[in-house]
Structure formats: C-alpha cells, structure tokens
Write a sequence for this structure.
C-alpha cells in the first residue's frame, strides 16, 4: 500500500478514525493535558550532569520571560545560556471537506504577512484539544464536532522554552468569528491537495509546516 493518503479512498467512519487517533496518542508519549506554562514558570527540570549554578530573569512581559542560566559542563567549566520562556500554545489543523482552513495575518516581529494555521495560547486548565477547539472558533468562525491530538513538540530548543501542541479538527460548522481586540486576521482556505505546496511558498513558518506534515503522516490530509 502506498504511503500517500491520496492514492486510495478511505472508507473508515470519522468516529472510528478519531477513536484510533485517541488511542494512539494516549498510549504513546503525548498527552492531551499539557504541562501548563504561562511563560513565567522558570522551573524547568534539568539533568544532574548539567547542574544550573544560577538562573537569572532579565525581563518579563506578562506572556513571556527572558534570562539566562549559568550551567556547569561535565568538564567543570561554566557558561551562560540565554533563553526566552513562552506560554504553551496550540496549533490547529482543520479540514472542511477538501479544504484546509487557515488564517492570514501581518506579523510585526518579522515584518511580513503570513498564511498560517489557526493557533493560540493554551489557557490554565485547558487541554490541547479544548484550546484548539476554542482557537478555531475564535479565529475562523467554525466550530468542530471532532477534535483529536496529533502531537506535542518543544520548539527552537537552542533558545526557547516553549511547548506547542497540534490538534486535528473536523466536522465543521460556521458559527462566526470572535477575535480579540488586538487580533487582525482574515480566514482563508486552501485545497487539501495543494496545502503543502502553498505553505512552502515564502514566507513559510514552522508551526504551519509542522502541523500539515503531522496531519499528512496520519493520513488526514
């Protein structure tokens, strides 16, 4: 059988596919309950061969923190490792028939407009799937009847303390957007069979590429 999900039709009911994905994620390394971090936790665990001799916070913004750890190497030498700690986030892969839902927004940090998967911060007490369902509704105006966990990653580990979960949404119904006051984004959609090509057209962002690849690996796109 081909690894390409488009080569053969999938007659498996949505409910059965969702149950299969739930079993796969809960029995594996990923949990739907994130190790909550609001960007101000500062107590990430370490390893005994790399003891932290000093940890310094240099600034806080309310949703992220930055500073450095003075770390002792196995040979006894020490070095400052600078880090930025960000709140835990969720990225949403949402399929409506043969189209993938996305959002377009200007990113002031990189000074360009990005075509992205819906995403946002996980609130205290939320699971990844709960946060993904909420973010999808707020940003695109669609409610999902089925949400499942695709995976969890630590991002840009040479600099960031940031964990990101990915969820897949289907069974979508329009309910209307509910954007925050400081959100300026436009819902978009692209054909599923063109999604990977579209998101690789510059400017490309990591969360969108990761989400699409995870969903394709599961045979969902």
């Amino acid at each position: 059988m081909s690894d390409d999900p488009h080569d053969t039709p999938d007659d498996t009911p949505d409910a059965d596919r969702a149950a299969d994905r739930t079993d796969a994620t809960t029995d594996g390394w990923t949990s739907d309950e994130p190790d909550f971090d609001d960007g101000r936790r500062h107590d990430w665990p370490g390893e005994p061969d790399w003891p932290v001799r000093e940890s310094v916070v240099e600034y806080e913004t309310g949703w992220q923190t930055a500073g450095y750890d003075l770390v002792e190497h196995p040979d006894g030498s020490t070095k400052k490792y600078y880090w930025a700690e960000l709140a835990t986030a969720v990225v949403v892969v949402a399929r409506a028939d043969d189209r993938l839902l996305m959002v377009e927004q200007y990113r002031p940090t990189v000074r360009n407009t990005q075509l992205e998967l819906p995403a946002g911060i996980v609130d205290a007490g939320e699971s990844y799937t709960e946060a993904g369902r909420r973010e999808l509704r707020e940003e695109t105006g669609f409610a999902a009847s089925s949400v499942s966990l695709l995976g969890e990653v630590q991002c840009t580990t040479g600099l960031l303390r940031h964990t990101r979960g990915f969820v897949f949404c289907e069974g979508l119904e329009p309910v209307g957007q509910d954007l925050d006051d400081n959100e300026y984004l436009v819902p978009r959609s692209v054909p599923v069979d063109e999604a990977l090509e579209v998101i690789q057209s510059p400017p490309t962002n990591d969360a969108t590429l990761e989400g699409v690849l995870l969903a394709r690996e599961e045979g969902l796109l």
Observations:
- The two ends are 17 Å apart (CA to CA).
- Confidence is low (pLDDT under 50) at residues 1-29.
- Residues 52-85 form one domain.
